[in-house]
Amino acid sequence: MEKRLMHAVQYNAYGGGSNALKHVEVPIPIPSKDEVLIKLEAASINPLDWKIQKGTLWPILPTKFPYIPCVDVAGEVMEVGKGVTKFKVGDKVVGSMSPFSGGGLAEFAVVKESVTVSRPPKMSASEFAGLPVAGITALQALSQSIGIKLDGSGERKNILITAASGGVGHYAVQLAKLGNTHVTATCGARNMELVKSLGADEVIDYKTPDGAALKSPSGKKYDAVIHCANDFPWSIFEPNLSMNGKVVDISPTPGSVMSFALKKLTFPKKQLVPLFLLPNCRDLQYLVDLVKQGKLTTVIDSKYPITKAEDGWARSIDGHATGKIIFEF
Ligand SMILES: NC(=O)c1ccc[n+]([C@@H]2O[C@H](COP(=O)([O-])OP(=O)(O)OC[C@H]3O[C@@H](n4cnc5c(N)ncnc54)[C@H](OP(=O)(O)O)[C@@H]3O)[C@@H](O)[C@H]2O)c1
């Protein structure tokens, strides 16, 4: 039988950035027993996607070329695998694909039922497509790594969120304010009003001397830092932390982990906690419900049709997105 084809964007080797993306026609994937086939309405890009292309995760990812990137997807269920019980054809969903399979920058994608959740059918897919990687990372950093209770109970904590204008940071500010927290946030001058409007109590311009030093304007010491910016030495964090202060580093490198581990000998109660996202339905559904209730918003930096995928890819590599970059289909 002739295979049905779809438009997809893929690359064939490491490197090359947006120029290496190729528009191709490939067979529509077939869902296995525990998967659903989704006709995509929106997908979002994360720095992970272009870091994989750059070879940052070599030799683990990609497992083979050609590789269709992107893992955050939202759309409509077209077909369900034999073992799928939660979904039926026509359901509107959001899902988190594995970076091992990739496949989100295409008209159709197959996603495991275990990391797919329903979303409100009348709300735009773009509102939800940013949640899987960035939203779950922000949620896990706050609730699991730091222990913030997002129902507002729990003892008050001073939190610093760096790069609060980015994909992870803008969700982290909003989620942190559901808990009993005082939030200090760093971002560029152009985004300070936005980050305040998301709930931050204090905002610092990261290009000023105080911003670069991560100093709270009110002189607060941080009980926890959700560190979404890159490459800060321990010597910057240390003087700003409370006695048992914790830095949750969402972009840990072997070098930074080693350096923090050595410093920990000197400041044993202050800690670095590397975070590696673990996608799951419970966290994704929690975030979808918050969006539905109007308690969490996806700030959309820009939207690109799949025909202009290169532009969205280049925008993400540039590192200056405010909120999420979305592809629409
Ligand atoms: N561990 C995990 O599982 C995991 C999961 C998700 C993400 N990550 C990693 O987390 C990092 C952040 O991801 P993201 O999606 O939030 O990135 P993003 O959306 O690309 O971040 C861009 C934003 O960061 C701001 N920014 C850059 N440097 C800054 C600094 N020094 N201080 C304050 N703001 C700064 C930029 O502001 P300006 O435009 O004003 O410069 C821009 O608004 C990436 O390295 C990503 O790979 C890890």
UniProtKB/TrEMBL annotation:
It holds the Pfam family ADH_zinc_N_2. GO terms for molecular function: oxidoreductase activity. Gene3D superfamilies: Medium-chain alcohol dehydrogenases, catalytic domain, NAD(P)-binding Rossmann-like Domain. It comes from the Eukaryota. Residues 16-327 form the Enoyl reductase (ER) domain. This is Enoyl reductase (ER) domain-containing protein.
